[in-house]
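Troubleshooting: if your tokenizer reports a length mismatch, compare your output against this known-good record of 208 residues.
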Amino acid sequence: MSESETSRRWILRLGAGAVLTGFRGEPAECAETLPPGLFLPASDHLAHVIQAAARSRPLTNYEPEFFTPGELEKVRTTVAVLLGDIPNASQVTRDIANWIDLTVNDSADVRAAANSLSAAHRALAVAHYGEESVNRLETFDPQKICREGLAEMPSPILDRPAEGAAARFVEYLKSAAIDGYYTSKEGLRELDYRGNSFYAEPPGCTHY
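Known-good structure output:
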């Protein structure tokens, strides 16, 4: 087998778990030795990293960046009302509220970055994501929604506001709460999500 064929077969093993950090070019253009940054990870190491990530609570001891502590507690209570009876409710709703605070705080920078795209990059984004998605990034202002909504909502919701800033605020929290829950460990378990797993080789495939 030629060196080129060997390199090509090695590159095809990327689909089985190889990590690519520095490779450039087509498989047939590989050098005689492996390029810097291209290597096969140890299976036990990858499994350990994935298990650690699944157990981690990155927002534990989180300090609010946008809301005041009192406002963040109001957001948490509202999220709890919106999600209802869920597993590990206290910790999950607290994590989601912290994540909402973080994303609301960063939203102005996201909007500024979207509005600073060059014409060519914006056209590429529109072609890939669609005009509506790009327009939303350029105009959507969660900070304004939250500030105005909190001003109209002096206490956590029991009866959902029907209109106005408070209603927009609750609708935003509802969407964020759903996103947050169904990307949490508990929500993924409810969906019977089978991703975030590492396999040393494709399950059930003997033509590897």
